[in-house]
Give the backbone structure.
Amino acid sequence: RFVDCSFERCNLTSAEWRGVSLNDVTFVGSKLLGGNLTGVRKTLLAVAFEDCRLDYVDFGGLDLAKTRFVRCSLLDATFVGTDLSGATFEGCDLSGALFRNTNLSGADLRGADGLVLDPEANRLQKAKVSVYGLAGFLTKYKLDVE
């Protein structure tokens, strides 16, 4: 059980998270490569990530509403069935990340690079996106956007 703490410059690659409680936990400059966070306790889950490598992490089914991802690498991360409403992705690389049945309502996606998602398979009401990021919402239509 971790409450009101910070993991700084930690290598937590492939750590086992089943049954772990994360309440007001911040990860700074840490690696969680290939981690599967789907087993964390859902009650009182509150985390933030800054300058982290979160490539291949499975966030599926978690309530990460209002979570801040700042300058993180999220290559091929999985967000299937995840609540990311009001979340922020500032300076993040989301190349290859999978979003399906994800709640991104009110999320700030303006600072995300490599974002590709299907607007018909995710909730996006009032999400903030940049004009440059809109092409990633049209990928499934195979349009030539210039």
